[in-house]
Specification:
The protein has eight helices and 17 strands. Helix content is 25%, strand content 32%. The protein is globular. It is α/β, with parallel strands linked by helices. The strands form four sheets. It has a seven-stranded mixed β-sheet, sandwiched between helices. It has a five-stranded antiparallel β-sheet with strand order 5-6-2-1-7. A three-stranded antiparallel β-sheet has the order 4-3-8.
């Protein structure tokens, strides 16, 4: 059993949860995820790692309540325990496998959509700790849904974009990316994490600008071990499983139409 050490409401139906993870926190890497199950009756939910602390031996997640199983997780209070926690799972960001010289040749922009801001933070922090300053476009439907702004500002050059113009750039994250490029900013890699439809069009925009795109297919995962087949997808024309082969893939290789159909199912 794993206990909740801290719980904070970030926005409507969105919570940050910190768990006690003494045996696994030192193994966590940017881009990986955990499986959390609140009760024996609820489903397991795949949650990307938002942060971790090897000294305090904690792991942090951000979760939005969208159904019964995610609701069972956010209804847990400090001191209560989860029925099942498994992780870290999946492959880390390929940024972690690059040498410092290779990283110095990368100009990374993160496109963080909604709750996707949370898993962007560990990757941005990784680059910051290496001595590099990535760019983050922090996007949401409106100002109330902007997450992790201060945390991201501590490790990156942050630009805000809202669909309704209530804060920052008025427009979609793709429009904000185009605006930064038009202003003379140059990028070699765009890492998009957020809703599936947002990532699809982020890839189209980035690739049209000559920027290599990377996406996280966490939204279509269910079991997290490759056994259920729910996250089966076509990447580069071949069948891949988001949970064991990913969750991150080069955006241009992903068949988003198939992935969106699977997400609806």
């Amino acid at each position: 059993m794993v206990a909740i050490l801290n719980k904070k409401k970030l926005s409507n139906d969105i919570y940050e949860i910190v768990i006690d993870a003494p045996n696994v926190s030192e193994n966590a890497k940017p881009g990986q995820f955990f499986m959390l199950q609140a009760t024996p009756e609820s489903e397991r939910v795949a949650l990307s790692i938002s942060d971790w602390d090897t000294e305090k031996k904690t792991v942090t997640f951000v979760i939005m309540k969208v159904g019964e199983s995610s609701g069972a997780i956010v209804e847990k209070n400090v001191g209560e325990e989860f029925y099942h926690v498994c992780g870290p799972l999946g492959n880390s960001s390929d940024l972690c496998d690059m040498t410092d010289e290779e990283l110095s040749n990368e100009k990374v922009v993160f496109l963080a959509g909604g709750v996707g801001a949370a898993p962007v933070y560990p990757q941005a922090k990784f680059l910051h700790d290496k001595g590099f300053t990535p760019t983050v476009i922090l996007a949401a439907r409106n100002e109330s849904l902007i997450l992790y702004e201060e945390k991201l500002k501590s490790v990156a050059d942050v630009h805000i974009a809202t669909d309704d113009g209530s804060r920052g750039f008025h427009g979609l994250v793709t429009d904000a990316l185009q605006d930064l490029v038009d202003k003379g900013m140059k990028f070699t890699r765009a890492v998009a994490i957020g809703p599936m439809i947002m990532m699809k069009f982020a890839v189209i925009k980035a690739e049209s600008l000559g920027i290599t795109s990377v996406v996280s297919l966490n939204p279509i995962m269910l079991d997290g071990t490759g056994m259920c087949g729910c996250c089966r997808c076509k990447v580069g024309g071949e069948t891949r499983y988001a949970c064991v082969d990913g969750p991150e893939f080069f955006g241009k290789d992903v068949d988003f139409d198939e992935a969106l159909r699977r997400l609806r199912r």
